[in-house]
Amino acid sequence: MQMNTPPRSTIRLTRRGRLALVLAGAVVAGTAVAVPLLTLDTGEKAKPTTLVIPEGWRAGQVYEAVDTALELPPGTARKSVDGANLRLPNDAEGNPEGYLFPATYPLGAKASPQSLLKAMVDTANAKFQRAPIAAGAQRNAMNVYQAVTIASIVQAEAADKADMGKVARVVFNRLERGMPLQMDSTINYALNRTTLRTTEADTRIDSPYNSYQRMGLPPTPIDSPGEDALRAAISPPPGDWLYFVTVKPGDTRFTADYAEHQRNVAEFNRNQHTASAAAG
Q: Domain-by-domain residue ranges, the chain?
């Protein structure tokens, strides 16, 4: 049964921000070190020997980390994509977003942007094309690329690993009911930012990633999902949830009742107001 969607100005799914630190010129998510540096007794910095790509990084963050690790001018890795001969699915149309797999990659003497990006995509294909993933995608009437796209949303939206399956179920429930996804993470991707708040003006932007206005999945993944998010995307638990919001750290509430969701959002807003006031 198709359900009507409440007014877009009042719907909010989870708002999840990502903390970022700047280390050695690269953006680092959470506590993961993108380009580890060793300090010698002479005080000089040795070149890093590995490159760590955390779960949930966007392609732009990966490019910046590659440039920093290889001491190349900004934009070099991004420009190398076309000549890297990446084995991407046809649906990707040459865009490696979602296929720069989060892992640790060695930085040998011959490392280049092309070799590193190729290693990331090859690793993604090895993970994504395994029988359980391919079969799980087919079981849910989608292809692997669509499964990776859902996993990328799950990676961005879930407050922790325990919430990933429920977030995936919300995505499926909304798709099955012909409801827009209305995920703040896709708006953040379109605007190249991370934030806990999405305004009414944000939801009116003209972008294929505006899941408040566009039906179905975004045209590409919105980050590089990890294996936990991918497993959630192909095997979400049963449930009727349509809405969710992280009211406070460790307290994400899922519901199928819009009125209950409104109360949860109001509590979230109160918590944010209190936190802002305490911060000065």
A: 20-128, 143-278
Other residues' Cβ atoms within 10 Å of the Cβ of residue 203: 19
Contacts of 191 (CB under 8 A, 6+ apart): 202, 205
Q: Which residue has the tokens 């993933």?
A: 133
CA gap 128, 133 in Å, rounded: 6
The answer to whether residues 16 and 196 touch, using CB atoms and an 8 Å cutoff, is yes
Q: Which amino acid is at 187?
A: I
Q: How far apart are the first and last CA of the chain?
A: 48
pLDDT for 210: 98
Q: What is the pTM of this model?
A: 0.84
Residue 208 tokens, joined: 């294929």
Residues 60 and 246: their CA atoms lie apart, in Å, by: 26
The pLDDT score that the predictor gives to residue 164 is: 98
Interatomic CA distance for residues 206 and 203, integer angstroms:
9
The single-letter DSSP state of residue 93 is: T
Angle between helices 131-139 and 144-157 (to 10 degrees): 90
| pLDDT value of residue 195 | 80
Give per-residue pLDDT as tens, 210-231. 999 999 999 999 999 999 999 9
